[in-house]
Design brief:
single chain, 698 residues, mainly alpha, two-stranded antiparallel sheet, 4% strand
Length: 698
């Protein structure tokens, strides 16, 4: 009997990839065909189910091909990368007018000011704003969309840079894929203090892996264009041009001192980091400072050690220090207050007068009030990140101590011995310098910045945690031999891996899919994590703009709102310096701040008439956006503003609707006249102007 011909297994991977790419294209088309028509409290729920199904197919195909056929590793990783980029770019794909509330609206105003001729150097962090305004002028893109594009581009940079950092630590293709998938998790985004909307600290955080990639390349002294990296004993050289192919070895002499590309690229990137966000630059300065001190210590006390042979970071650290100092000198108003608050908070904590993480305690109480347990929130927001942090700690400590040896199953692009251990040792020295500074943010009033620095640490954990994952998927045990017992364990590891290859692959696919799903489900705020989406629909912005422009002359119109006031929209629409009421529209409106739920229930006229602040006892505009209603009722589950408080406003006497476009309702509140209120207009105007001049660091 003739044997039935077996199908060619070599064609399975290409066909699967073709299906994956077609599914991804269909998913993007479906999302594009369903643009947002109003405020969306959750971008996940509003995106068509077809898109999520297509992304699941693309992700599953990518992971399966990566694990089964290394020949198609590059297109498989690219497929997953496009899928992750699609998720990160959903606000763009679905036609959001703008994405980002609170500080993002202020940054929109800053960008408008720069676009209108304002001096960008007056801003503490003009890097992202300059890119957005340049894109607006060159490509004719609306400034709102340009700012979303800037954030999305930095996210893509994060994907690529993390993968390259992992590749430098473990230079093989499998590590490159592990690094890429780890980056797709977007672990630094926690939606507590770091976000995927235009937020300058988050932009700097996502930019940092590119800086670290250049630092690693500079340390090793390699030329990426030649696909080989060599380290010379004097720490000054680079690879020769004779080596070209993957896996080849090269012969290099100590006299090869040709500079590498990072020699020229790293300095301008370091300067750019200061302009993007000085706080991130300060974190990197601590890292580089610790690494530089360690390098000089090795050269002074252990010159024969391999770490002493790496390129010095002295010049780069000095350049970053000088740039940071100059920038602080021209923007000292921002740093003096922060430094004073840090010193005071730490002093109070040491004396026993302050408490640790008061911001965390406050958030925990709010979460408990709506039925969300802290363990649940931790698992959703930080569960995957905690696993990566443990892996990162294991890798760093294991490689430094020698408990973890070099991987034996990878095709290294380097011939020198154990670069991973040496670079990890230097990085650990940088962490020793950085961690005390970050630990200071756990106490007192500055704990409001705590989760920013948690995001920064998660960025570092992503890189070294990915190295840990690469060790986990090694064909051989990475544990170093310690006598016969270790040899036996190594043999047992090999037998298990050989006996269950298919089972391990299936488990790996399922695990990666689950981890990706959990992590990407929290990169945007949504009711899943008891937050509301940051979508700002065009109707909401248009409603504020028309209300500002249509006020009548006479006494200034005062605005109130739910949890917020009109200030941020004023800046977002007209810039931080040139609002319309400085021109033909006078006088400028005033903001009296948010109104509590009880004030809405008891009656807005009575609330304003009986205010403890005389300046507020006057007629008001009261703004209620559809975003306010969905945020409070759906995302926060009526914690502070129940549904009844919104219904009560419309039914009150002396409260009438003056504008309603479906996204923003403006009520006019006829408050009993108060003669003393007008007398404080001038004093209040001066105070407001002073407050506008001191914007938050963002």
């Amino acid at each position: 009997m003739r044997a039935r011909p077996q199908p060619d297994r070599g064609i399975v991977a290409p066909v699967a990839l073709a299906v994956g790419y077609l599914a991804l294209a269909a998913g993007i088309a479906a999302a594009r065909a369903a643009p947002a028509t109003g405020y969306e409290v959750s971008v996940y729920a509003a995106t068509p189910a077809v898109t999520w199904a297509a992304l699941a197919v693309a992700g599953g195909v990518s992971i399966a091909v990566c694990l089964s056929d290394e020949r198609y590793l590059a297109p498989a990783v690219l497929l997953a990368g496009l899928g992750a980029a699609t998720v990160a770019g959903l606000p763009l794909i679905r036609g959001y007018h703008f994405y980002g509330r609170a500080d993002s609206l202020v940054h929109l105003g800053f960008a408008r000011t720069i676009s209108g001729g304002g001096d960008p150097l007056d801003l503490l962090y003009p890097g992202g704003h300059l890119i957005a305004t340049s894109l607006t002028k060159v490509a004719g893109v609306e400034i709102t969309r340009a700012m979303m594009l800037v954030m999305w581009t930095y996210t893509l940079s994060f994907f690529a840079s993390v993968a390259c950092c992992v590749w430098f630590l473990v230079p093989d293709r499998r590590a490159l894929a592990v690094g890429a998938f780890s980056a797709f998790l977007l672990l630094p985004i926690n939606n507590v203090s770091t976000y995927l909307h235009f937020h300058t600290y988050s932009i700097g955080m996502l930019f940092t892996p590119f800086v670290l990639y250049l630092v690693f390349a500079h340390l090793i002294g390699g030329d990426g264009r030649e696909r080989t990296v060599e380290r010379l004993a004097d720490g000054a050289g680079a690879a020769g041009r004779n080596a070209a192919r993957f896996g080849d070895t090269v012969s290099v002499t100590a006299g090869s001192t040709r500079p590498v590309p990072t020699t020229y690229l790293l300095p301008p990137v370091v300067i750019a980091l200061v302009v993007v966000h000085p706080q991130i630059a300060l974190n990197v300065l601590f890292l580089l400072g610790g690494m530089t001190v360690a390098q000089h210590a090795f050269r002074r006390f252990r010159p024969a050690h391999s770490v002493a042979g790496y390129r010095l970071l002295t010049a780069q650290t000095a350049l970053l220090t000088v740039t940071f100092a100059v920038w602080i000198a021209t923007h000292d108003w921002a740093f003096v207050s922060t430094a004073e608050a840090m010193i005071q908070s730490v002093s109070e904590f040491v004396r026993g007068d302050g408490s640790a993480t008061p911001r965390v305690e406050e958030q925990g109480q709010s979460a408990s009030s709506i039925g969300a347990s802290l363990p649940e929130l931790f698992v959703k927001l930080f569960g995957v990140g905690a696993v990566y942090s443990l892996l990162a700690a294991a890798v760093v400590l294991g490689r430094i101590s020698g408990f973890l040896g070099p991987l034996d199953d990878h095709r290294s692009m380097r011939r020198e011995t154990d670069t991973t251990r040496d670079v990890t040792a230097l990085f650990f020295a940088g962490l020793v310098a950085l961690l005390p500074f970050l630990a200071a943010h756990f106490v007192g009033s500055i704990s409001t910045y705590l989760f920013r620095h948690v995001g920064f640490l998660m960025m570092l954990a992503t890189i070294f945690g990915a190295v840990g994952v690469r060790y986990l998927v090694a064909d051989e045990s990475p544990l170093t031999d310690v006598g016969a017992a270790s040899a036996g364990a190594r043999s047992t590891w090999s037998r298990i891996a050989a006996a269950l290859p298919e089972a391990r692959s299936v488990v790996a696919v399922v695990a990666v899919v689950l981890v990706l799903s959990l992590s990407l489900a929290t990169v945007f705020p949504s009711p899943f994590v008891y937050l509301s989406g940051s979508h700002v629909p065009e109707g909401e912005m248009d409603g504020y703009e028309r209300t500002f422009a249509s006020q009548s002359e006479g006494s200034p119109v005062w605005f109130g709102g739910v949890r917020h006031s009109s200030d941020r929209y004023e800046v977002a629409l007209y810039g931080s310096e040139s609002a319309p009421w400085e021109g033909p529209v006078t006088p400028r409106p005033r903001s009296s701040g948010p109104v509590p739920a009880q004030g809405m229930l008891d009656g807005l006229p009575a609330y304003y008439a009986n205010s403890a602040d005389e300046a507020v006892r006057r007629d008001h505009y009261f703004a209620v956006a559809e975003a306010d209603r969905q945020r409070e009722v759906i995302a926060y589950r009526g914690l502070r503003y129940p549904e009844e408080s919104f219904e009560a406003v419309a039914a009150q006497p002396d409260v009438g609707v003056v504008r309603d476009n479906g996204e923003l309702t403006i009520y006019f509140v006829d408050t009993p006249a108060n003669a003393s209120a007008a007398a404080v207009d001038g004093k209040f105007a001066t105070a407001v102007d002073g407050e506008r001049a001191a914007r938050p660091m963002g």
